[in-house]
Design goal:
mainly alpha, 290 residues, single chain
């Protein structure tokens, strides 16, 4: 394994852990009703902007790239964050993460196909297996998620999928992520105006939102932008489906949730699909070199 591949591997692993941590932190805050969903969203995004701005100033990058993100990415970041928070009022940690990243996968793959990219046979097989796991989770049944929670988290996944694809264009991940967070401030103000009279929060809820915003979101998303330089669009989509598995175990450890049979089967299918995509692509690359 060369240094570049090792770097991508480490960055990807750190980003996925950060994504899963966001699910756990949000569920901890909202499940225990330590803060309302709107306040959690606002504090999360604002603290992310502040922390990233401080890091950007301290980092003092010598890069001549003056990129400052874009408004579409910022809106998608806000849309993801707000629907993510409200969805977790009624969803378990692992279930919510699986719905979101299943939607992310579908969004990225569909947009990739529309833009002219074609999936190889291994990618189609892996995507199909992973998607079957996603469908199995949401089939009608005793442990199926609520319709409102599912709908909100699906929107969050679509928004994050678009944000991720925009991130592949980034030449300066830290700078772009910083300004994407800063541009969410007008949306934060609008949300605050409509929800301030219903706000409720505690010290614990605020601290959880700050950690989610400043560390697992701000820094985590910067790392993700860096990791995507070495990943294909399909790998970017499918690998993120590891997050629900990590999040589910995080929910067991930190939120005292249980891993259901339905979630276990769905997770096995999702992991199997990821394995097929990754190993299949490697196999094709090896054949092309011969």
């Amino acid at each position: 394994m060369n240094n570049h591949i090792l770097k991508i591997f480490i960055l990807t692993g750190l980003a996925l852990i950060a994504f899963a941590a966001n699910s756990v932190l949000c569920r901890l805050a909202l499940g225990d009703k330590t803060i309302d969903a709107a306040s959690f969203t606002n504090i999360r995004l604002f603290s992310g902007a502040v922390v990233l701005l401080l890091i950007l100033k301290l980092y003092n990058s010598q890069s001549q790239n003056s990129s400052k993100g874009n408004w579409l990415s910022s809106f998608m970041l806000f849309l993801y964050a707000v629907t993510f928070s409200f969805a977790y009022i009624s969803l378990d940690t692992g279930t919510g993460a699986l719905i979101m990243f299943g939607s992310v996968q579908i969004t990225i793959i569909l947009l990739s196909i529309i833009s002219g990219n074609r999936l190889n046979i291994y990618e189609w097989l892996g995507v199909t297996i992973a998607f079957l796991g996603f469908v199995y989770l949401i089939l009608p049944g005793v442990s199926s998620p609520s319709l409102i929670g599912f709908s909100l988290m699906t929107i969050a996944g679509i928004a994050w999928g678009i944000y991720t694809l925009k991130g592949k264009e980034s030449k300066n991940p830290l700078r772009d992520t910083t300004y994407n967070f800063i541009r969410t401030i007008p949306f934060i103000i609008i949300l605050l105006v409509f929800t301030i009279q219903h706000s409720s929060y505690s010290t614990k809820g605020v601290v959880l939102a700050i950690i989610s915003g400043g560390i697992t979101s701000g820094i985590g998303y910067t790392i993700w932008y860096m990791a995507m330089e070495g990943l294909s669009k399909i790998q970017t989509a499918v690998i993120q489906l590891l997050v629900p598995i990590i999040a589910a175990f995080g929910g067991v450890i930190f939120v005292d949730e249980k891993i259901t049979f339905r979630l276990s089967i769905a997770s096995i299918l999702v992991l199997g699909g990821i394995l097929v995509v990754v190993l299949g692509r490697k196999n094709l690359l090896n054949h092309s070199k011969k």
